[in-house]
Amino acid sequence: MKCLSRSLPCSAHPSAALLALCLAPSLAACHGGAKDDTAGAPLGITLAMDDQLYAGVARMEITPEIVETYVDANGNNQFDGCMTDPTGTRPGCNNEGYDDVNGNAEFDGVWIAGYQTARAAMGVHDPITVGAVVLSLNEDYVALVGVDVLGLLENRTRDIRDVLEAEGFDRNHLIISSSHAHSAPDSVGIWGLDEKLIPGTYAPFMDAIEGNIADTIRLAAADMVPVSPTQGLVHMSDDPTLNGAPFGGVNPNDRMLGGINDIRDPIIPADAVWALALDGADGRVATVISSSGHPEVSGSDHSQLSSDFVGYARDYIDAADGGTTVYLSGALGGMQSASGSTLPMVDESGARLLDENGDPTWMEDASGFEGARTWGVLVAQAAQAALTDATPWTAIDIRWHDVLIPVNNISFKLAFLSKLIDTPDEYVVQDSSCPGWGTDHDLFGCVPGAVWQIGLGPSTLASAPGELMPELFYGVPDEAAMADASLRPTDRRWVQASDSCATVDYADCKDKDALNGCDCLHAHAAPYRISDNGVGSIESMIPGTYKVPLGITNAYCGYIVPAPDFNTYVSVLTDDGDHYEETNSCSKDFGNLIQDAWLALEAGQ
Questions:
Q1: Which one of 84, 169, 302, 374 has the minimum C-beta count within 10 Å?
Q2: How far is CA 466 from CA 398, 449, 535, 591, in A?
Q3: pLDDT at 3 exceeding the cut of 90
Q4: d(CA 38, CA 554)
Q5: Are 72 and 42 in contact, with CB atoms under 8 Å apart?
Q6: DSSP 379-437
Q7: In which band, very low, low, confident or very high, does the pLDDT at 18 lie, cut at 50, 70 and 90?
Q8: How far apart are CA 493 and CA 79, in angstroms?
Q9: Collapsing DSSP states into helix, strand and coil, what is residue 56?
């Protein structure tokens, strides 16, 4: 049985008792992925020592029902009325009333995450879904989950892991990746009416999401079949239409590299697309794909719920190849997005649109749902092209290392203190185990997270609990301007660099807005590096033929910025220049902590 994207209503999910077909004692949770050989088959997962790979897949629609909408009198896609005035006629309510369907004299809107706050959904453009693939090989197993939300906080994924662990599933073999969709319901809590301290989470949606995710995993686990894997990885920068002339391409936008509009200097895109096809006796069972880019291409000039380009990519592969496609997010930080890119246009079938001379036609400043469709198709086609390696698997290998993430950045700290964020206080660590507790006066506490290394045959997926900047995974290009700031004003990767900062030491600039005529908010570390301690890239620490970053996995704590380039001056209360990411990161120490976790994992700790 496959529970596809429109087969179940948003609030319905099967009974756990009916789906938990085979309960077993909890598998041993130890770093390195060792397990109890006497354990049974949790959730009905096919476990056999026969060198055969098995897979099951399910996808469930979880779109909330929009019960109450409002009058957008000024057309700004924001609710500017008053929560307790359905007429909108009271002073200060701006004539933006709402349909008080349940008669409680309070606006029960579905707030959309990403971009501006107070963006209430007026309709549904395409479904919000959760998809799961469960894989097993020689009694090792893993569940890979992709969910169309901006981010699930650790307390939510912990609850899901607790529930499945009680049914015999190894909690550390569950990987939940949030797509980071900017037109999905707010799952974090900070996109409601923040000035009035009204959280953005919609209770019916959040009350159901944990059960829906768990049930999707159960459905996938209960329907496993023998499969053969095909995998591979391509770089979108291999397509010259996605690169500007400075990067050897034909795209009319000089900034384009792999189709990414990287708006933070330097331009270092995470343009790899990884794909895994799982084929059974009757054809395609599932496809798993991962790419790096904010699902924000549809923009903020609408009030429709949407999975953005992710849904278009899944639908394209489902229609072309069969089976069910699951999307996992990659290294999103820094700022990886196709929004605002110049893209080659494609028709409804996915074919490139050419002019009378046979040259590409271009979509400039890609945005809206047509922009999202175009980018989704291009990502899907890259994923299909990646499927070239039919090497059989010899193992599934799961390793992890826990980390406590300090909450000492003002934006997240304020969100916790004002009860906007979707994490109850009991999930926050406030004792000496939290780095900085008792000495860091800005510290609210720590939230748990972890990094995972997921070995799937020749592929290795490496996770992070936030929006990982690509250089932390791939490293810094070996180019002269990376080390010498005086070369940056004319360098292809340093679009915002200026001569005034060429002789300023960024170490003296990183806690200020200006210094000696240099705009520190547009300056960056020189030499540009990911560590002050010589720590290498995550890619260099992991094995495998295909190395894949996974972002926003099993937790979410904002952007993960390399410590040497973190500007501690900027915040939600200041201008941010080219350091927007720092305003939405839990901590200036986040990058170092993630690197330390990977070093410990590499050392076998």
A1: 84
A2: 19, 9, 19, 10
A3: no
A4: 27
A5: no
A6: HHHHHHHH--B-PPP--EEEEEEEEEEEE-SHHHHHHHHTT-SS--GGGSB-STTSTTT
A7: very low
A8: 39
A9: strand
Query: How is residue 501 written in tokens?
Result: 């900062």
Residues 221 and 174: their CA atoms lie apart, in Å, by: 12
* Average pLDDT over the chain, rounded to an integer: 93
* Whole-prediction pTM: 0.93
**What digits encode the pLDDT tens for the residues 341-390?**
999 999 999 999 999 999 999 999 999 999 999 999 999 999 999 999 99
CB atoms inside a 10 Å sphere around CB 356: 5
Phi/psi for 372 (5° steps) reads -65, -40
Residues 382 and 374: their CA atoms lie apart, in Å, by 12
Can you tell me the distance from the alpha carbon of 580 to that of 570, in angstroms, rounded to the nearest whole number?
A: 8
Model confidence pLDDT, tens digit, residues 477-487: 999 999 999 99
Residue 463 φ then ψ, to 5°: -100, 160
Domain spans in the chain, listed from the N-terminal domain onward: 16-64+125-225, 231-283+313-329+338-386, 396-476+529-602, 481-522
Question: Sign (positive/negative) of CA torsion 303, 306, 310, 316?
Answer: negative
DSSP state of 300: S
* pLDDT at 35 > cutoff 90: no
115: three-class secondary structure by DSSP: coil
Cα separation, 132 vs 155, whole angstroms: 20
Residues in contact with 317: Cβ distance below 8 Å, sequence separation at least 6, in sequence order = 287, 289, 325, 380, 383, 384
Residue 111 β-bridge partners: 120
Contacts of 296 (CB under 8 A, 6+ apart): 114, 115, 181, 182, 183, 308, 337, 339
pLDDT value, residue 196: 85
User: Who contacts 244 (Cβ-Cβ below 8 Å, separation ≥6)?
Assistant: 251, 252, 253, 254, 255, 256, 257
Q: How far is CA 76 from CA 71, 73, 303, 339, in A?
A: 11, 8, 10, 19
Task: Count the neighbouring beta carbons within 10 Å of the beta carbon of residue 513.
Answer: 16
